[in-house]
Design a protein that fits this description.
This protein is α+β, with helices and mostly antiparallel strands. Helices cover about 30% and strands about 30% of the residues. Strands 3, 7, 8, 9, 10, 11, 12, 21 and 24 form a 9-stranded mixed beta sheet that branches. Strands 16-14-15-17-20 form a 5-stranded mixed beta sheet. Helix 1 (about 20-30) crosses helix 12 (about 450-460), helix 2 packs antiparallel against helix 6 (about 165-185) and helix 2 (about 45-65) packs across helix 12. The structure holds adenosine-5'-triphosphate and magnesium ion.
């Protein structure tokens, strides 16, 4: 491809709408353009990157016995009603009606459709395991579409669904996919980590892992152990209770204490001259219609995912509004506490709260707190569970080592679903004794378009994108510094043609531009290799090879440059390192 012909409109300015670097660079380097919030057009270079990621994904799915299919985007509401998810999915689902007023949605995910297919076609255990996948657009009307391809409303996903005879064989399918995912992200040239994850709305009880591309800008926080292989999303990471020393100054005092205007944990602690670890933090929640209180130690954060799993699941879990708190407890939120409440008010306490011996909590009375409160004596929680978010430095739940924190971008997730969908949709088969059995399922998603964004978040510098070779739109760009010197031009043409004939995907910057402009664009677009043909080096029969990632340059004799580049590219494409 010649750059003069390539639809690659680069921008010098950083577009104001783009907050994160991948979004900025994809716009500036001419990879994507916005059609509507969270909906993008891929320009030629953008689409090449997507197709490369898809191809890696496809090869790895096929290698594990996956069979590619194409499922409809437009899906009938009836199927979603069968699993109960038509009502549960909420406003994230794009819904529409046809001319006969029948309801449909644009697929946010495809468990229903695929299980419907399989229940119609599956007869015997001999057909199992069955691994079916597709690579296709998904539609989710995200509350906050943002960060370009990172959180779109239309995005590309690979989704594979596994159907197995029993839990053991289903686990085997899960393991295969886990391996495939390690290979996919390694082959894409990304630094990633697989972490234990919450199964969320997709559900299932058999466990789940997320694959996180590690990057400072990641929306997700993960913790990992420095001594063993434990790694988890903080949403999921198990917390061991850690008991803080009791505040001796409070031991002798009981009853109400006047704490005027102290609404936050910090204010109460500093007013009373005690540590936050001596306080009970009481927050009121609404889970659908249910009102309840959640208690954690004053220095801890409530983990709403854990709350939802322990007390729900709810379609809508949120903190109660001050008016709601007031109408139920007759008290403003800052002074709420668990003591002396009517029995029907449900109280859930974190494991650490259950062990606090002389705590301070709100008195359910404006400007007052209670001293020397003991869980089990002064109040009895209806539920005691791990309800808080882990913090770095805490002990690993597996080995006791120290947990470290990192930020990540979730580029894939695998779920062991059990029979959640197959039971509701009656996806069954006949076993070897002719008896009807329900399938065990798994589902496995790769965010293809998000992976493209994540790759840029992880690989960029002040000049632009630094593509890992396997997913670069082209491997190499050939830049003649002038079009006025016929030797320079003909050498550039020859290298360009030869490289393409060797299988090195190469573009030729044949524009009549200053070298500086060409170099800037090449760096911005992020071609891993650049060959510069300049008059000075040519006088010695040499051209310059520039590595985008390291900025390293080498002068290489013209006749050797193509073989050198071919070797570099082939080597980079063959590396698969799974840790
Ligand atoms: P998130 O928690 O980020 O909203 P999710 O857990 O709902 O994502 P899954 O249902 O697990 O997403 O989808 C599989 C993969 O699809 C995710 O791991 C992610 O890479 C990608 N993905 C999900 N939502 C989006 C989106 N709005 N835009 C781009 N990619 C997405
Ligand atoms: Mg997910």
């Amino acid at each position: 491809m010649r750059v003069s012909q390539l639809l690659n409109p680069t921008l010098r300015e950083v577009p104001a709408e783009a907050e994160v670097i991948s979004h900025q660079l994809m716009l500036r380097a001419g990879y994507i353009r916005k059609a509507a919030a969270g909906i993008y057009t891929y320009l030629p270079l953008g689409w090449r990157v997507i197709r490369k990621i898809e191809q890696i994904v496809r090869e790895e799915m096929d290698a594990k016995g996956g069979q590619e299919v194409m499922l409809p985007i437009v899906q009938p509401a009836e199927l979603w009603r069968e699993t109960g998810r038509w009502d549960v999915y909420g406003p994230e689902m794009f819904r529409l009606r046809d001319r006969h007023d029948r309801e449909f949605c644009l697929g946010p995910t495809h468990e229903e459709i695929i299980t419907d297919l399989v229940r119609g076609e599956l007869r015997s255990y001999k057909q199992l395991p069955l691994l079916l996948y597709q690579i296709q657009n998904k539609y989710r009307d995200e509350r906050r579409p943002r960060f370009g391809l990172m959180r779109g409303r239309e995005f590309i996903m690979k989704d594979l669904y596994s159907f197995d005879r029993d839990p053991e064989s289903s686990k085997e399918s899960y393991r295969k996919m886990y391996d495939a995912y390690e290979r996919i992200y390694s082959r894409c040239g990304l630094t990633y980590r697989a972490v234990e994850a919450d199964a969320g709305a997709i559900g299932g009880t058999g466990g789940s892992h997320e694959f996180m591309v590690l990057a400072e800008s990641g929306e997700a926080a993960v913790v990992f152990c420095s001594d063993c292989s434990y790694a988890a999303n903080v949403e999921k990471a198990e917390c061991l209770p850690r008991y803080a020393p009791e505040d001796q100054s409070l031991k002798e005092k009981t009853g109400e204490v006047h704490t005027p205007g102290t609404k936050t944990i910090e204010q109460v602690a500093s007013f009373l001259g005690i540590s936050k670890t001596s306080l009970i933090k009481t927050l009121a929640y609404k889970g659908d219609e249910k009102f309840f209180l959640v208690l954690v130690r004053g220095d801890r954060e409530i983990n709403e995912i854990k709350v939802n799993n322990a007390l729900g699941p709810f379609v809508n879990l949120r903190m109660a509004e001050p008016e709601e708190v007031n109408s139920v407890l007759n008290c403003e939120p800052g002074f709420v506490g668990p003591v002396g409440l009517p029995k029907e008010i449900f109280i859930a306490a974190d494991l650490e709260v259950a062990e606090m011996k002389s705590a301070v909590c709100g008195a359910n009375k404006k400007d007052y707190h209670l001293l020397n409160v003991v869980c089990g004596k002064d109040f009895v929680p209806a539920k005691i569970a791990d309800l808080r978010t882990v913090t770095p430095g805490e002990p690993c739940p597996k080995c006791g080592g120290s947990l470290k924190e990192a930020r990540g971008i979730e580029v894939g997730q695998v779920f062991n679903l059990g029979t959640k969908y197959s039971e509701k949709l009656h996806a069954t088969y006949l076993d070897d004794k002719g008896k009807e059995q329900v399938c065990y399922m798994g589902c496995y998603g790769v965010g293809v378009s998000r992976t493209m964004a994540a790759a840029i978040e992880q690989n960029n510098d002040e000049n632009g994108i630094i593509w890992p070779m396997p997913i670069a739109p082209y491997h190499c760009i050939v830049v003649p510094v002038t079009l006025k010197d016929s030797e320079v031009v003909s050498v550039a043409e020859n290298i360009y043609k030869k490289l393409n004939s060797l299988g090195v995907e190469t573009v030729l910057d044949d524009r009549d531009e200053r070298p500086g402009v060409k170099f800037k664009d090449a760096d911005l677009v992020g071609y891993p290799l650049r060959v510069t043909i300049g008059q000075k080096a040519m006088a010695e029969g040499k051209v310059e090879l520039v590595y985008r990632a390291t900025k390293q340059t080498e002068l290489i004799p013209v006749e050797q440059v193509c073989d050198t580049i071919e070797r570099i590219v082939k080597e980079a494409l063959s590396i698969v390192t799974c840790d």
